[in-house]
Amino acid sequence: MHADEIRATTEQVRRLVTDQCPRWADLPVTPLPDEVEGTDHVLFRLGDELVARMPKIAWAVGQAESDARWLPALAPHLPARVPVPLHVGEPGAGFPWRWTVVPWFAGGTPPRLGCADVSLARDLAGFVRALHRVDPAGGPAKPPGSRGAALRHADDAVRRVLPRLAAHDDGFDVRAAEAAWEVCLSAPEWDREPVWIHGDLQPGNLVVDDDGRLVAAIDFGALGVGDPAPDVAPALWTFTGAARETYRETVGYDDATWLRACGWALAPSLTGIDYYRHTFPRMAEHGRRTVKSALTNLT
C-alpha cells in the first residue's frame, strides 16, 4: 500500500504481548483480513475481546500516544463506544514504534461505497454533536494541512494532483472538480471557538450492530481541535440519498461550513485516487464516488 511501510508480523506481536503484557500472553494472535485493514495500521485480534493496533507507516506513529492521552477524557461524553487503549506498548522484537491494545467491538461496518440508512445518519450526527460539545480547552490544535485546519492549506496538494488525474478516466470531469474545489475555497474560514473533531468518519471507521445502529467510532488518527467541517463531510463520503440529507440537517452547521465540508471531502479523495490507484483500489474507488457526490452537491 505504501512504499515505505513496515508491517508487524504475527510472531512480533506475540513476542511483544508476551514480554509487555504477560496477562494476555496465552491469548491467540490472529491477523485481521485485508478487507478490514485501513491505510495506516495492521490489526491483530488477541483472543476474542482485544485488538493490537500496529502502525505501518511513519505518519501514524503518534496515534498511540494521542489515543491514550485524549480518548479516556472524551469517552464519557460520547453516545457510542471509542477504542480507549488498555495498553500502550513500546518498540521491541524488531518493531520500531509504539503500539496499542484496544477493545474489540463486535459488529460490522456500513457499506463502504455509500450507506442509505437514515437511522445510522441520525446516530452518527448525534455522536458528532456530542463530540463537538466537549470542552476543547487544552486539546491539540490541528496543524496546517490537516483536517480541521484552514482548507486553504490543502490547496497546493490538490493543485499538484489535478494534472495527473486528467490523464485518467475516473468517471468525473477533472475541470469540474477543480471548479468545485475553488467554490469550497471561497467559503469563509471557521472563526468561532474550535471544536473536537474525529476527522475521518468514513464507513470503515464505524462499527454497527445487526440492525445498522452505531455501536462505536474507531480510528482517531485525525483527532484534534479545529474547524468542525471535516466531521460534516461524512454526509458525502459515508451517506447517500435521504441519509445524506438527514446527516447534514441533524449535524446542524451553516452553509459556509457545508462548503468547507465539501472541500474536505474533495481534497483527500482527489489526492487519494492518485496515491492509491494501484496499491489500494478500494480506497481509490471510494474517492471517485466521493468526488462525484461532491460535484453533484456543488453544481
TrEMBL record:
Entry annotated with the keyword Nucleotidyltransferase: no
UniProtKB keywords: Transferase
Signal peptide: none
Keyword set includes Ion transport: no
GO molecular function: transferase activity
Boundaries of every Aminoglycoside phosphotransferase domain copy: 44-260
The protein, known as: Aminoglycoside phosphotransferase family protein
Lineage: Bacteria, Bacillati, Actinomycetota, Actinomycetes, Micromonosporales
